[in-house]
Structures are given as C-alpha cells and as structure tokens.
C-alpha cells in the first residue's frame, strides 16, 4: 500500500464547481498539503464562490491559489484551445499529485479535461477521479483511498454546507454520496473509500 503523506503540492482540475469535492472530498480531507492549486474551467460567479468556500473547508491550513475560466458549461470540446491553455497554465505550478476527471467519463467536459491533463503534467502523478451521475459510466478503478467513517460523513456534511445551490437536485443526498463510498470500500476491504484510475505511474527506488 502506498502512502500519501509526502504530498505537499497538490493540483486539482475540475470542469465544474463541486466535481472535485464529490469525487475526491474524502481524499482532500485526508491529505495535508502545503500548497494547492485549484483549477475550474466553468462556473458562474455564484458557483465559483461556492467552490472557494469548499476549497477552504476541505483543505484547512493549505495555501490555496485559484485559476477559474468562464468557459460555457457543457461546451468545452468546442473551446478546446482555451481549455488546453488553462491546463497548460496549471502545469506551470509545481505539483506532487494532480487530480483530474476519469478518462472514461461520459460527460464531454469531464472527458476533455481528463484527456488534456496527461499532455501537460509530465512530472506529477495523476489520479483520475470518478463522478457518479445518471450516465452510468462508472468503471473499474485501480486505486483506492480508504476513508474512516468520520471522514466519509464529514465529506457529505461539507458538500451540503458548501454547495447550497445544488440542494434541489433530485440526486443530491447523503445516500447518493455514501452509497458509492460504501461500494468502493467493499472493493478494498474497508467500510468506505474513494476510487481512482491511474494510467501511468513511475516507481522510484531510493
């Protein structure tokens, strides 16, 4: 089992506000990075304000910088050049670990960002996260981060607190968030977990 204590510089790539926290909020609560670069490609001013609040809540104590691009939601493939430029700019910030959407995500915005991340980040490990949704596109992850009960439930609590604009969605509830965490936990012989995909990894012997 690998350990994440050495992650001091973290870069987070999201297509939309709340993507990162839904997918990896438990991991964020379990890490203790010194610096975080938080990148979103879409979002209204109100939604981006929610993302700022979420970053502060999920990453207390970290020095957080933000890079927001006001590209149109659901239309990122039509704005490939701008999306590529945003990811390239993010890659100029040193990182030990990068979180990006899954390469198998059915949502076009997520998938484009997932495809762009490896083209820009050559010196950092990339974890591709999964976002549960109606598309039914969950795959077979190969990396698991176990979560304690307290962390799993704190994640859900903070999602409710930081993203009030999403409360009216019919899928936004405790069961939705905890169900996937419970399933992924069973897959790695824990109660709760978040799961990721790694397509490329470098092992260093020191």
What does this structure look like?
This protein is of the alpha/beta class and 206 residues long. The protein has one domain (9-197): LmbE-like (Rossmann fold), CATH 3.40.50.10320. Helix content is 38%, strand content 21%. The chain is built from 6 helices and 7 strands. The protein has helices at 19-30, 45-58, 80-90, 108-120, 149-162, 174-187; strands at residues 9-14, 35-42, 63-71, 97-101, 125-129, 143-147, 192-197. A 7-stranded mixed sheet has the order 3-2-1-4-5-7-6, sandwiched between helices. Helix 3 (80-90) packs across helix 4 (108-120). The longest helix has 14 residues, at 45-58. It starts with 8 loop residues before the first strand and ends in a 9-residue tail after the last strand. The mean pLDDT is 95. InterPro entries: GlcNAc_PI_deacetylase-related (IPR003737), LmbE-like_dom_sf (IPR024078). It holds the Pfam family PIG-L. This is LmbE family N-acetylglucosaminyl deacetylase. Keywords: Zinc. It comes from Longispora fulva.
Nutshell version of this structure?
By secondary structure, the chain is of the alpha/beta class.
Which labels suit this protein?
single chain; 206 residues; alpha/beta; 38% helix; zinc
Physical arrangement of strands within the biggest beta sheet: 3-2-1-4-5-7-6
Rg over CA atoms, rounded to whole Å, is 16 Å
Mean pLDDT: 95
Residues in β-strands, percent: 15-25%
Q: Could you name the CATH class?
A: Alpha Beta
Structural class by secondary-structure content: alpha/beta
How many distinct helices? 6
Tell me the number of strands. 7
How far from one another are the termini?
Answer: 17 Å
CATH superfamily: LmbE-like
What would the principal axes of the Cα set say about the shape?
globular
Helix content: 25-40%
Architecture, CATH level 2?
Answer: 3-Layer(aba) Sandwich
Protein name: LmbE family N-acetylglucosaminyl deacetylase
Keywords: Zinc
InterPro entries: GlcNAc_PI_deacetylase-related, LmbE-like_dom_sf
Pfam families: PIG-L
């Amino acid at each position: 089992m690998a350990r994440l204590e050495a992650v001091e510089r973290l870069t987070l790539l999201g297509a939309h506000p709340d993507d990162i926290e839904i997918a990896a909020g438990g991991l964020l609560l379990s890490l203790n990075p010194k610096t975080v670069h938080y990148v979103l490609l879409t979002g209204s001013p109100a939604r981006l304000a929610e993302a700022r609040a979420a970053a502060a809540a999920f990453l207390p104590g970290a020095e957080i910088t933000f890079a927001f691009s006001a590209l149109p939601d659901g239309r990122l493939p039509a704005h490939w050049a701008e999306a590529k430029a945003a990811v390239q700019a993010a890659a100029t910030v040193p990182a030990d670990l990068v979180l990006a959407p899954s390469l198998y995500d059915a949502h076009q915005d997520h998938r484009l960002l997932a495809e762009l991340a490896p083209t820009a980040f050559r010196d950092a490990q990339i974890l591709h996260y999964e976002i549960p949704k109606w598309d039914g596109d969950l795959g077979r992850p190969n990396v698991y981060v176990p979560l304690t009960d307290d962390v799993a439930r704190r994640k859900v609590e903070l999602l409710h607190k930081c993203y009030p604009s999403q409360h009216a969605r019919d899928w936004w509830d405790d069961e939705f968030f905890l169900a996937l965490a419970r399933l992924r936990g069973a897959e790695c012989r824990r109660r709760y977990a978040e799961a990721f995909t790694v397509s490329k990894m470098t092992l260093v012997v020191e």
